[in-house]
Specification:
Layout (H helix, E strand, L loop, with lengths): L1 H12 L45 E4 L7 H7 L4 E4 L5 H4 L2 H15 L4 E7 L2 E2 L6 H5 L21 E2 L5 H15 L6 E5 L2 H4 L5 H4 L1 H22 L4 E4 L11 H4 L4 E4 L6 H16 L3 E7 L29 H14 L4 E6 L29 E3 L2 E6 L2 E6 L4 E6 L6
Parallel strand pairs: 1-2, 2-3, 3-6, 6-7, 7-8, 8-9, 9-10
Antiparallel strand pairs: 4-5, 11-12, 12-13, 13-14
Helix pairs in contact: 6-9
Amino acid sequence: MKKTTAILTAALALGLLAFPACKPKMPATTPSPSAWSEPSPPQNATRLPEFSWDRVPQYMHIRKSYKYTRKEINYLATFPLVTLEKANGVKVFKTSEDGTLAAARAIKEVNPATKILYYRNVIVHYPGYRDDEGINSIPEGFLVGRKGQTNLVRGRQKAYDLTRPEVRDWWVENPKSVCADPAIDGLFLDGMLKILKPGYLNRIVGEKKQAAVLAGYQSMVEETRKALGPDKIMLANVVRAQSPDSGLLEMKRFDGSYLENFDGNTKHVVEGIEAFQKAARDGYLMAFSAGLSDLNPEEGDLNPLQTDEIRKGLSKDSDTSKRFNYLLAIFLICAEKHSYFLAHDGYFSTTSKVWMKTPPELKRPLGPPKGPAVQDGYIYTREFAHAKVRLDLENKVGEIEWIEPKNP
């Protein structure tokens, strides 16, 4: 008996035996920091943006229908990662492609290290692109609902029928052409939740058609990677708590994920944090983006599955300090190398109340994390070289104690 006990004890110590753990009703406490390890590198880390823990690493996602001013270009050039949204420069350069390229080239002249992404939606047709004539010339290139409706997205936009090879070929050719320019470092792919999330397309076109669209989308993503080559970034809006497995499996097709819509019930926020942490520790690029204003309840009927983050926008005198610290605390609880932060007031530079305004928290020294976040129920804590973070999900409060560096 003593011999058997000794063998079992040795096996447990070596990790050769394991017992299944029961999942608690409340979130479990994170293991001690001693179990933490540096995140794994992605398949091609050389194409990812520069990264530093010196300050909170930042992301920018923006559009302006007119030409950016020299001051705005200099500001954009301070970010390691920038996505130039649809409709950039269309009032001056006539097309999204030309407006994006003009802005990207100007940014690169100031800072060649800034990684710049070109925006395309995988399912929603937003006009203003040079190649709009291409999709309009494809017979039955857009999805049609079971009731004959054609504006399937929010009652306004058409949706691509990705079951058709000619539509996929047309779609892939556009980012291939634009991303071939040396000023563009990769592609931002949006809208996949409208394909992936159960119930979105199903209710409009039926389950059989939705499954075919999904298969077409997956084929299109594979062709896009081949078309762009190994040196271009592919960042997708895919990790979301409400998605199957939080989108982690689908994310593996890309270099990482943009993250939005971290509001909702506490359970969803916990699941979102878990997904963010898992992806970041695995070495994926994570662009955390969250609005500072309240969600717009009037969008409910047009946004029933919350695939879009639609907010009211800030007023001139809005106090964003509590919301900002809450969002920054979520980010810091999850961030690893190649994680980037953006708290915004929408993506229109002309209407945003925070455009080109840098909060003092983002100017403070941060330093690398001392380990992973520790979770106790709905309370998370984490320490950095120059900051202590506490996140209370139930009360939506983030507290950050900034620690000034000691003089050498």
